[in-house]
Design brief:
Blueprint (H helix, E strand, L loop, with lengths): L1 E7 L2 E11 L6 E11 L15 E7 L6 E4 L14 H9 L3 E8 L3
Length: about 110
């Protein structure tokens, strides 16, 4: 088994490669496991730090819903969609990251 780890910008990335056998097969097949874990530190070190929460909106002509929020804190359980996890992250780290909002243009 080989193991590689990289830590950058508050994220810990580990990749291991193991040999294994899939169920109902006779041949050994290599498998990879990738684990990405967000560290408890600020994601936004310098952008618009005077604002309580950085939220940007983009108007889109063709959108199925009137409003869609995309995660920018990397903590959402529904990633890439925002589930509000940035609130807990901001309280824990003093950060001010918020979602990217896609809004449907009015016709």
């Amino acid at each position: 088994m080989s193991m590689a780890s990289v830590s950058s910008a508050g994220f810990c990335y580990s990749k291991s490669r193991t040999g294994g056998v899939k169920p109902n097969t006779a041949a050994a097949t290599p498998r990879s496991l990738v684990v990405v874990r967000a560290e408890a530190q600020a994601i936004n070190p310098e952008i618009r730090k005077t604002e309580e929460k950085v939220v940007d909106s983009v108007m889109v002509a063709e959108l199925s819903k009137p409003l869609t929020a995309y995660c920018r804190c990397w903590r959402s359980g529904t990633f890439p969609l925002c589930d509000g996890s940035h609130v807990k992250h901001n309280k824990a780290t003093g950060d001010n990251v918020g979602p990217l909002l896609l809004k449907k243009q009015k016709e």
